[in-house]
Design brief:
The chain is of the alpha+beta class and 177 residues long. 49% of the residues lie in helices and 12% in strands. The protein contains six helices and four strands. Helix 2 (12-36) runs antiparallel to helix 3 and helix 2 (12-36) packs parallel to helix 4 (86-110). It is flat and about 65 Å long. The protein starts with a helix and ends with a helix.
Length: 177
């Protein structure tokens, strides 16, 4: 798709503007939510992406010869131009969709109105469910040890994430000697 887009656009500058426009409409609201709003989740992000993309593409794009499907207020029929700031509108709608869907699903899942088995993105897994998961506190690190002509792959369990003992388990120490 990127190749087709690059071949249909007449200028590099136009492609640069289109990419910047899509980043503003689609990615900027997600970045704001991830950095500043801790309650937002994957479901809200996906819905916000879809709403932002649909509103942006329905506003038309002269660079790609896409006629507007939605004629926002102040649409100029003679020139075929959108005079309404529809890109900012699409970005704000995307942001509000992320917040609204995230809050709604948080209330529904945490209030147990929707069973947890429908939480396919694991956004609302409770502490009790995490404790029941086997080895939830153990990380596995795979180490490749060179031994002459051959190499041996060894799995090493780490009790706490991001913390590692400086020495290998006794069995591994004997193999290395």
């Amino acid at each position: 798709m990127a190749t087709a887009l690059a071949l249909t656009v007449k200028s590099i500058y136009g492609l640069f503007l289109l990419c910047g426009d899509l980043v503003f409409v689609i990615l900027f609201p997600q970045l704001v939510c991830v950095v500043h709003l801790e309650f937002t989740n994957t479901y809200g992000s996906l819905c916000g992406y879809i709403v932002g993309m649909v509103l942006r593409l329905c506003g038309g794009e002269s660079l790609l010869s896409i006629d507007p499907v939605i004629k926002y207020p102040y649409y100029d029929e003679t020139e075929g131009l959108q005079l309404f700031p529809f890109r900012a509108f699409a970005m704000l709608c995307s942001l509000l969709t992320i917040v609204a869907v995230s809050l709604l699903l948080k209330l529904l899942f945490e209030g147990e109105k929707i069973p947890m088995k429908y939480d396919v993105a694991d956004c609302f897994r409770s502490k009790a469910e995490q404790a029941r998961r086997p080895d939830h506190h153990l990380d596995t690190e795979v180490v490749l040890l060179p031994l002459g002509d051959r190499s041996v792959m060894v799995s090493d369990r780490i009790e706490e994430p991001r913390r590692r003992n400086s020495e290998h388990p006794p069995l591994l120490r004997e193999e290395c000697v």
